[in-house]
Structures are given as structure tokens and as C-alpha cells.
Specification:
By secondary structure, this protein is of the alpha/beta class. It is 33% helix and 14% strand. It has seven helices and six strands; from the N terminus they run βααβαβαααβαββ. Helix 6 packs across helix 7.
Length: 238
């Protein structure tokens, strides 16, 4: 089967503000995010990309733009790669969401977490998000393999929680443990779906070995909690 490069979108204005963007329209890359998107071209130089699929959301399409231009491709929008539908949580501050009872379910038993519908945005369970994301990636991978051969390389530009779910599935990690996976903005992960099993070949590659932990004022975690949506990244600076 083909090789799938999973790319999280670059840092967005919502990441910078500590807001859970979800399916909010108009959430763009910030200046750092645009630089990260441009840098993907060099980081993936020499990679023979034959297909780029992207979430329908603006921040992912902006991340994919320099890459598809460099490879002479047209990005293919796939709803299955879209962000988790956070419903009533959409647009709220992560620091406020930490206080919600559902936060502990999201952290400790994500397979049971269902985001409530909001006035503007429908909710979705983390399990449903995981199932449709994994199905989308496997579907696209099979199509790319059929069209371009078993050594073809393609990319999927998506979101933190979505990619975490795909990686957890690839290594056989139960969904309740998917918060152990970390996916930074503009990070690259690679999964190879073989006839017998998926193999994770790379995870959360940001192109650097440097590590800059988040400043205390920007850290919404509580004893190891994961940032819902993926956060601004360990190497983030304001």
C-alpha cells in the first residue's frame, strides 16, 4: 500500500489565543503558521508526492497551499479529515473548558466523550471522529495505491485530535489512550498501511530536536492533560 504523510495544520490564530476553534469559519494561520506552511516544502524536498488531501477548514487549506504548488498538484478536500465537531465547546477558551466536567471524560475516557450540540455547531463523539478519520485515510490510501502503485506517497493535512486518533489506530492503541499521543502544529507523521497491519514510520516530526516547553501562563494542562484540539505546540512562541 501507499505511504501516508499526516500533516497537522500550522499554528493558527485560535492556537495563539488558546481557543478551541473546531469548525469556526475564518480561522487562519498566524504569521508563525504561514512560515511553518512554507517550510514544509523544504522539509519534504525530494518526497515524490502524488496526492494531497486536506480538511475543508481554512487553516488546513492554507497549510497545504505551498506544498501543492511546489508539486504541481490540486488539493482534494475530504470531509473525513475535518476537525472533531466540538459543538457547544466551539470558540471557547481552553482555560474555561478545563473547568467543565466533560473535560475529565475527554482526558481519561475519550471513547465515552460526546461533545454537546451548540446553537451554531453540532457536537460529535471522539469515537465517531476517530472512526470517520481512520476510514477516510484508509479509503484515500487504497485509491492512491490503485492509481499510483504500492510505493506511492501522499499527504493528508488535518488537525491535532484527528491525527492523534489515526496514529493511535495505526499502532493499535485503544482510543482511551489516544491522549498519550502528541501532534504539534505543522508536524509530520508517517503511516504505511500494509496488507497485514499499519506501521507508524514517523510521529510528530517538527524538523527540529529543540524543545521549548510552553510558558506557565499558556499551559492549560493539569497533571498531564492534553490540550483539546492539539494546542499551540511545545515549540510555540507568541
Amino acid at each position: 500500500m501507499a505511504y501516508c504523510i499526516l500533516i497537522r495544520h500550522g499554528r493558527s490564530t485560535a492556537n495563539t489565543q488558546g481557543v478551541l476553534a473546531g469548525w469556526t469559519e475564518g480561522v487562519a494561520l498566524d504569521e508563525t503558521g504561514r512560515e511553518q506552511a512554507s517550510a514544509l516544502v523544504g522539509r519534504l524536498e525530494g518526497t515524490p508526492l502524488v496526492h494531497v488531501a486536506t480538511s475543508p477548514l481554512q487553516r488546513c487549506q492554507e497549510t497545504a497551499a505551498p506544498l501543492v504548488a511546489a508539486h504541481g498538484l490540486e488539493p482534494i478536500i475530504h470531509d473525513g479529515l475535518g476537525e472533531c465537531r466540538y459543538g457547544a465547546w466551539t470558540g471557547r477558551s481552553l482555560k474555561d473548558l478545563v473547568k467543565e466536567p466533560l473535560w475529565r471524560t475527554v482526558q481519561d475516557r475519550p471513547s465515552e466523550a460526546v461533545f454537546p450540540d451548540g446553537d451554531e455547531y453540532p457536537g460529535e463523539s471522539i469515537r465517531a471522529m476517530s472512526e470517520r478519520a481512520v476510514a477516510a485515510v484508509r479509503e484515500i490510501d487504497a485509491e492512491v495505491t490503485a492509481q499510483h502503485g504500492k510505493h506511492a506517497v501522499w499527504a493528508a493535512v488535518s488537525h491535532g485530535d484527528v491525527i492523534k486518533a489515526i496514529l493511535a489506530d495505526a499502532v493499535g492503541t485503544p482510543l482511551d489512550d489516544f491522549q498519550r499521543v502528541h501532534v504539534d502544529p505543522a508536524s509530520i507523521s508517517v503511516v504505511h498501511y500494509t496488507d497485514t497491519r499499519p506501521m507508524m514510520l514517523r510521529s510528530n516530526d517538527t524538523g527540529s530536536s529543540a524543545l521549548r516547553p510552553p510558558k506557565p501562563a499558556d499551559d492549560t494542562s493539569d497533571g498531564g492533560d492534553a490540550a483539546v484540539g492539539g494546542g499551540a505546540g511545545l515549540g510555540s512562541t507568541s
